[in-house]
Protein 1
Amino acid sequence: MPDFDTLLPRPAAAIRADGECAWPAEVTVRTSADLPAEGYRLEIEPDGVTLHAADAAGEFYGRQTLRQLAGPAEFRAASIHTGQSTVPCGVIADHPRFGWRGCLLDVARNFRTKAEVLRFVDLLAAHKLNVLNLHLTDDQGWRVEIPAYPRLTEVGSWRASSMVGRHDGPERDGRPHGGFYTVDDLREIVAYAAERAVTVVPEIDIPGHARAAIAAYPDLGLAGDNPQVWNSWGISTSLLNPTESTLDFFRAVFDQLLDIFPSPVIALGGDEVPGATGEHGEFVRLLAEHLATRGRRAMGWDEVLDIEGLPPMVIGAWQEAAAGIRAADAGHDVVMCPEESVYLDHRQSDHPDEPIPVGYLHTLEDIYAYDPIPGELTEMLGTQAQVWTEHLDSARRVDYAVFPRLCAFAEVAWSAPEGRDFAEFLPRLRDHHLPRLDALGVEYRPLDGPRPWQTRPGVPGRPR
Ligand code: ACM
C-alpha cells in the first residue's frame, strides 16, 4: 500500500494516522470556501474518506491523490483487481504553489492526433498540471480548421517533406506530413480538458512563424514572397504583411478561436520575427487589443515587450529570467518558461545514444532544481514546460522526451520549494511513480538511458 511519502507532486502537508480504509471507499465531497484555490483536504478514516475541496479543480486533485494512494493499478484503463485493497489513514492538506502550471505542446511541427492530445491531457492532469498551451500554427503546418478560410487547412495543414534531424544539408524524408483538428475536434478537446481541470490555451503564431498561412493565402505575405509550407526547421524569413487586410483576416481567425476556446488567455506568439518593423509590432498590439475588447487577455512571447502601448498581457518569458522581471515591471502577468531550463525537447543527457540531441542539457535533476521565481520577483502567474516537436515525430518520441522530466516539473510547479531534495525525489519517482507511468502505458526515458529502439542512430542533432 503506497503511503503518503509516495505522492507526486509532494503535498503541502500530510499527517499519517494509524489504520487503513478499505478501497474503493465511499468519498464524501464537501465544498469549502476556506481552502486556497484548487486546494483540497483529504480526511481518510477507517470507515471512509471526506474530501474537502475549494472548487472543482480541488476535488479533481484530491481524487488524483487518492488514486496514487490506492496503488499503480489505479492508473490502468480498467480494473484488474479481484480482491479489496486499502488506502492509508490520515489527513492531507494540499494546494498548488502556482496558478498556472502549464505545458506547451507543439502540434504544428509534428501533428499529434486528437486521441494523442486527449491522452496528453490525461497525463498533464494526473500530474496536477492545469494549462495545455496548444501551439496550433507555425511555418511547418496550420492545424486548426477556420471555416471562413478553408485553404488554411487545405493547403496549410500539410508539407511535402520534412527535415530529418538537424543537419544543414538538403536531405529530406520525401514523405508528406499533415493533419488538422476540426472545430468539433477542438471543442471536444476543450471539454475533455475542462473535466480534468485543464484549460486549453490555443496559440496562433503571428507575425512570424506564419508561413503555412502565407502558403495558403499568399496575399497575407510580403510582396514577392510566395512560400510553400516549410520543410525545414528554424526561423523562416517569411513574415505576414502587416496591412489592414491582413489584420482583418487575423481578427476573423482569432474570433473563430474565441468561439472554440473559452480560455481567458489566447496566445498570439510574437516570437522570432527576423527583420521585424514597427508595423509588425503595431500589428501584434492591435490583435492584442482586439482580444482585450472581447474580454480575453493576449499571451505573447517575451519579444513583444519591445512593442509600445500593449494592453496588459501574459508574457511567456522564454529567453531569460530577466525578461520575466521586465514583463512584471511593465504590468504584465508572467509565466516563466526559459529555454535554458524547461525545454523538454532539449537533450536529457550527453550519452552518445541520446536520440537527436538538441538544445541545452536538461537532466531530470536539472528540471527538479529549477526555481521559476527569478530573484527579485515576488508575484508570478506561474511556469510552463515546453515541448517543441521538430524532433519528436511520434507520440512515442513525445513520451520519451517528456517523461519522467515532466514529473519533476510538476513538483516544481505545484509543491513549495522548501525542503526540495533530489535525493528524496529520485527514489519516490523510481519506486512509486514510474510504476504509475508503466500502468498508464507511458514510454518514458528509463533513468539509465534509452532502450535500443528509443535511439536514432545517424540522425544528427545540434546540441548547444
Ligand atoms: C520560442 O521558443 N520561440 C518561444
Protein 2
Amino acid sequence: MNVLVINCGSSSLKFQLIDTDSKDMLAKGICERIGIDGRLVYQKAGGEKEKSDKAMPTHNEAIKYVLEALQNEATGVIKSLDEIGAVGHRIVHGAENFTESVVLNDEILAKIEECNDLAPLHNPANLIGVRACQDAMPSTPMIGVFDTAFHQTMPEHAYIYGLPYEYYEDYKVRRYGFHGTSHSFVSKRVAEIVGKPVEDLKIIVCHLGNGSSICAVKNGKSVDTSMGLTPLEGLVMGTRCGDVDPAILEYLHNKKGFDVDDIMKVLNKESGVYGISKLSSDFRDLTDAKLKGDHKATLALTVFAYRVAKYIGSYVAAMNGVDVIAFTAGIGENDELVRADVMPYLGYLGIELDEEANNIRGEEVTISTKDSKVQVMVVPTNEELAIARETVNLL
Ligand code: AMP
C-alpha cells in the first residue's frame, strides 16, 4: 500500500510517499514558508530536487500542491489519488490520552486538541495538517502516530516529578518523552539484528540529532527516557539546554531582567552546543572548529558526550543491566567522533571501541569489539517508514 506520511509544523509541511510493501520511498519533499509566501521542494526517488514558489496562505494550498506534484505527468509517482491508501500523520503530543496510534475522526481530533497546551508549537500545527488532508482526500483513512505514545509504558516512579502531586492530577504535569517512533523503530530493529525477541532484551537507544533523547527499552517497552513534559529536558542538544537547575530562571530574571518568554527563548534556541560554542548547533562545524583548536567548540562537544554517557549510566541502573546500546539520528549515525568520545566512559561495562567499524558510514554496524560484554551498534532510524508501517498495521 502507498502511505503518505505527513509531518506538519506551524509554517512547514514535510511529506513522503512510501510503498509499504517494498519499503521504498517514492517521493518526498517539504512545503516551506506557509502563511508567508510559500515554496514547494519536491523530489522523486532517484530524481533531482525541484523547487518552486507557490502561494500558500494556508496548509490547504500546501497540501493541494503536494498532491498535484505527486500526480504530475512528468515527475509524479502516482496517476490518481486513489493510489494513496492512507495518510499517516506525525502528532507530537498525545499526553496520557493516547498509548498507541489511532484512526483519526472528529472525536479523536477533539481529544488531541485537549493536549494542545502541552505542545503549543506543535500540536495545533499537526491538527491543521490533518484537516487539510481530510479536505483534500475525504474518503482516505487518516492515522495519527504520536511521539509520546511509546513512552506511555514508563512506570509512575520514572514519570512523576518531585513537585506537588496535585500539579500532575490537575494539570498533567509529568514526564512524557518524545522521539517515541524512532526509539520504537530502532529497538525493534536491534532485536532483529541480534536475532533475539525484543521481549528478552535490555536496550538503550541514543537518538542524537538536532533534538536528542535517550531511551531505556526493557523487554520491548520504554521504561525511561530523557525528555520530559517538553522536549527541553535531558541531554544538551543543538540549541536546547537539557537538564539545568530550575533556579537559574530566577537568577537570570534578577540579573538580566528576563521575563519567562525571554528565558524560554534562551533555553530553547540559544543554549545547547550552540550556546556553549557561540558558533553553531551543527556538529560538523563544531568538529571543524575543534580541529583548529577552538576551546569553546571543543568544550561543547565534550559536554555533549559526557551528558550522553551519564544518561547511559543511569539507564543501566534503571534496567539493572544492558544488552545493546544503539546510536541513531543525524549525529548518532554520522558523527564517529562523538561516538568515540562517549565510548571510553563505558569501559566499566566491558565495552571497547572497534575503531575501524566506527568509521563505517550510513549502515547498520556493530562498533564495539567482539570481546566487548555489551554490544554497541549504529542503527539508522527511519521515522517516516515507522509511521507508514504503523499506519498499515492499524488499518
Ligand atoms: P537530525 O535532527 O537527526 O536530522 O540531525 C541533524 C544534526 O545531525 C545536524 O545538526 C548535525 O549536527 C548532525 N549531522 C548530520 N550529518 C552529519 C555528519 N555527516 N557528521 C556529523 N554530524 C552530522
